[in-house]
Amino acid sequence: MAQKNKLINDPIHGYMSFEKWAVEFIDTPHFQRLRDIKQLGTTYYVFPSATHSRFEHSLGTAHLAYTLTKRLQEQQGIEKSDHDLECVTLAALCHDLGHGPYSHVFDRTVIPYLKPSSGWRHEKGSEMMVEHLFKELESCSIDLSTDDEKFIKALIRGDSKGNKRSPYLFDIVANERNSVDVDKFDYLARDCYHLGMKSIFDFSRLMQFSRVMDDQITYYHKECFNIYEMFHTRYSLHKKVYSHRVSGAIDYMIRDALVEANSYFKIADAIENAEEYIQLSDSILNRIEYSVCEELTKSREIVNRIRRRKLYKFVDECLVPKDKKDHIMKMINECEIVSHQNDSVPLHEGDVIVDWQTLNYAKRDENPVDAVRFYNDGDVSFPIYRSNVSYLFPIQYEEYIVRIFARNPDKVEAIQDAFRKLAKTSGLELSQGFLKSGSRKRRFPVEDP
């Protein structure tokens, strides 16, 4: 009797069907570990319903990758190599295996602090985990070759160079060409759902009106606005949710706790060893909190502060003009802020955290839609530029923000005063909406749940 597919009910996609070979990858410690890594990291501390994990996001991404690849192959009769469908699905399934504790907190703040010159990203961790998974998987219903493994890893990092498989397959999971991919389709819908937010971006319609032309995935010309809405939704979530001030403060608390615990847990070494890395998840905070090891005293104190909401405090922020970014980045740092302190409250570099934020439409300072190809009733694909869609779309696609935090809540005003003195000499325009030096009154309320 033929093996039935496994059905998993999902609030975003309904019943998702996975074939036996996919389930064999799902039922491994490597993949099951993702249950213990929250998709939105510390955002959960601000938005309590954001409890979803990398586990269900990876399942959803794999479901969409399988659905889209199979539809394109069958409807267009595309010639395919052996295991193209399986490899794309497995790449989507495994694309987040490299995430560490609290997702992007780990690869954007912890590892850069512990190994500043490593250039390590979670995609590299995913490749390491895939390689180890292939070695550890005792049996598999499909015979995947070494070339298939290399292909899967290339799909995860979105690198089609030197690969002989069909170029359009690299547009599905991690699209380096224009950033339109099923990873975003899933997490935008899933995050909005769990955050209780609405979005008019319709990924199912976009998938339905896609086709392969000129070796890449193209979209029906009437979907251009829908694609703009996708990138706008992504930017809005970054602006309102992913970069929330309170979760940003907790990000740095978790970073400090993990940095202090590095000598005990060997966190920095784990990124080079899959067997050790598989033990790292959000549960590391519990291990710190309930330990009695003297070596973890400082880390434990920070975790206890998080539990009691005695958090690092947001001090101030301002937008940095694009033409001044490089100059400002050289001038604004912890040392310079402290050097502008007054004598009322003594400040030290360890009291101040300078956080640089970059928000964009997923292609740095470029408009990603300019790299998308569209089709109509003909056989030729073409671009659609902003001026042909709407004059209300942005003309700048990246913004830079410098944000200041205080480790000690009692020093917020002193740090803000010092930062504003430095900012004034740097030519920055400061917001009037935040806490004024010498006063605890706010002109506008600042969200701080």
Automatic annotation (TrEMBL):
The keyword Hydrolase applies. Residues 50-197 form the HD/PDEase domain. Signal peptide: none annotated. One of its GO terms (biological process) is dGTP catabolic process. SUPFAM superfamilies: HD-domain/PDEase-like (SSF109604). Pfam families: HD (PF01966), HD_assoc_2 (PF19276). GO terms for cellular component: nucleus. Keywords: Hydrolase. The keyword Hydrolase applies. GO terms for molecular function: dGTPase activity. CDD domains: HDc. Gene3D superfamilies: 3.30.70.2760, Hypothetical protein af1432. InterPro entries: dGTPase-like, HD/PDEase_dom, HD_assoc_2, HD_domain. This is HD phosphohydrolase domain-containing protein. It comes from Gigaspora rosea.
